[in-house]
């Protein structure tokens, strides 16, 4: 869980910083286009240094950790570099104060960050009049442009943080669902066995007490105890069988709903109308496990679930386009391994692995009931 969270923070930070670096790179590019290579080099050095510091700020914000005790110093560093370079880089540098406003929004609490944003936007007006044009309209436009661009830049970082939190919430919900299912199972077994074990204990104690005085009655009590134990064993089997039984139709609907809840699109294609109970149970578990893995271990944008009749049996395909590296390396967890064994016992097969196009798929094939019955004869 911790490793997955760290990996998400890394790749989200990389994406945000890469996009930010591309935008910041327009300033030195402007110097190159006008043939001023000296100023272009100075802009690259200054912006490159700020980008390194900005990357740390973004990573901490996305991870939801504190920005540290030196937030004010970091902000002053941005302000000093940006505004200190204005006399040397001139009008081409006029939009870079948005970096200062963005840093303020990310480093400080909302009310203080909002104050920084307003101050930077207001300062852009006289700065434009001095460095760009003494006309008021362009100055107002650039002030508004800096304000909007700063909000958008900070909003991108906030969005990346929400993405990370949403994915962690999905994993937590899936884990909680499994834990709740186990607790329900434990509760059912507790209710079932509590009274039965108490009866067995009382009858055993009674049989021991009667062993010397009335052997015939003691034997009857022992026989009654055995009957209770046999009945309890059957009840446990019934509970476990009920828990193992799944409706494949309900699981398919639940899988589509769960996957689309994450923002991905899920296509469901059904090529058959009826499935026997045993095959449906097995396929229901495979669908549930595959959908859970997509939610917990992928960044899928599109998923496909196909169920049709192939080679006299039932074929299931669950494919997504967002496999992470660690998921592709595992090629299915312990859940799929257990289902693979179950499919093999039924005379079928189950495979899971990467598609070679950044995706991951689970394939299962189970023979028809008639074929399995003929094999057992």
TrEMBL record:
What InterPro entries has UniProt attached to this entry?
A: HATPase_C_sf (IPR036890), HATPase_dom (IPR003594), Sensor_HK_TwoCompSys (IPR050482), Sig_transdc_His_kin_sub3_dim/P (IPR011712)
Keyword Translocase in record: no
Signal transduction histidine kinase subgroup 3 dimerisation and phosphoacceptor domain mapped to chain residues: 182-244
Give start and end of each Histidine kinase/HSP90-like ATPase domain: 281-368
Instruction: State the superkingdom.
Output: Bacteria
> What keywords does the record list, in alphabetical order?
Kinase, Membrane, Transferase, Transmembrane, Transmembrane helix, Two-component regulatory system
Q: Which GO terms describe its molecular function?
A: kinase activity
Spans through the membrane:
12-34, 41-63, 75-96, 103-123, 143-160
Give a yes or no for keyword Transmembrane helix in this entry. yes
Do you know which Pfam families this protein is assigned to? HATPase_c, HisKA_3
Q: What is this protein called?
A: Sensor histidine kinase
């Amino acid at each position: 869980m911790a490793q997955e969270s760290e990996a998400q923070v890394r790749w989200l930070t990389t994406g945000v910083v890469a996009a930010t670096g591309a935008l910041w790179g327009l300033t030195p590019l402007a110097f190159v286009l006008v043939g001023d290579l000296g100023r272009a080099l100075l802009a690259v050095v200054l912006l490159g240094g700020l980008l390194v510091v900005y990357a740390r700020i973004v990573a901490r914000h996305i991870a939801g950790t504190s920005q540290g005790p030196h937030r004010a110093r970091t902000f002053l560093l941005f302000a000093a570099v940006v505004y200190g370079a204005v006399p040397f880089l001139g009008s081409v540098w006029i939009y870079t104060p948005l970096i200062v406003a963005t840093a303020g929004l990310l480093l400080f609490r909302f009310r203080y960050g909002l104050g920084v944003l307003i101050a930077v936007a207001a300062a852009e007006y006289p700065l434009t009049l001095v460095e760009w044009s003494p006309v008021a309209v362009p100055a107002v436009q650039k002030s508004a442009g800096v304000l909007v661009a700063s909000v958008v830049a900070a909003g991108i970082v906030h969005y990346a943080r929400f993405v990370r939190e949403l994915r962690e919430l999905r994993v937590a919900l899936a884990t909680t669902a499994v834990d709740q299912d186990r607790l329900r199972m434990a509760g059912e077994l507790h209710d079932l066995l509590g009274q039965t074990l108490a009866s067995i204990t009382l009858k055993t104690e009674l049989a021991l007490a009667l062993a010397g005085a009335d052997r015939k009655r003691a034997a009857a009590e022992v026989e009654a105890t055995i009957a209770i134990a046999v009945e309890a064993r059957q009840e446990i089997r019934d509970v476990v069988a009920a828990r193992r039984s799944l409706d494949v139709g309900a699981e398919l609907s639940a899988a589509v709903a769960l996957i689309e809840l994450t923002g991905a699109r899920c296509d469901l294609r059904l090529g058959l109308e009826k499935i026997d109970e045993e095959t449906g149970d097995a396929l229901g578990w495979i669908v549930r496990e595959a959908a859970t893995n997509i939610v917990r271990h992928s960044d899928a944008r599109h998923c496909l679930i196909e169920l049709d009749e192939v080679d006299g049996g039932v074929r299931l395909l669950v494919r997504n386009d967002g496999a992470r590296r660690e998921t592709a390396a595992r090629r299915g967890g312990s859940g799929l391994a257990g289902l693979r064994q179950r499919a093999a016992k039924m005379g079928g097969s189950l495979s899971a692995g990467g598609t070679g196009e950044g995706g991951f798929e689970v394939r299962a094939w189970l023979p028809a009931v008639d074929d399995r019955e003929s094999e057992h004869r």
